[in-house]
Amino acid sequence: LVADLAEWMHTRVPGRIELRMPGRDPIGFGLGAGTTIVISGKVQQLAGWLTGRSGGEDLIAPGGLPELPSWL
Length: 72
Fold this sequence. Notes:
It is a single chain. With 72 residues, this protein is α+β, with helices and mostly antiparallel strands. It contains 2 helices and 3 strands. It has a 3-stranded mixed beta sheet with strand order 2-1-3, with helices on one face. The radius of gyration is 11 Å and the shape is globular. It starts with a helix and ends in a 21-residue tail after the last helix.
């Protein structure tokens, strides 16, 4: 689900985002140039944030979480 959501958002976010999950390869998306925003957490937490079902409180994002478009 996280990979599918990242693919859907690839052209819909203004910057570059990299998602890091334990035991999985990082997933990057976004067409923007500049600094990549790195967000780490469990796959369930990332899926909740990407779908808008969570505010991402349990995620690690040193630069803060970017605003995402509505998924549905």
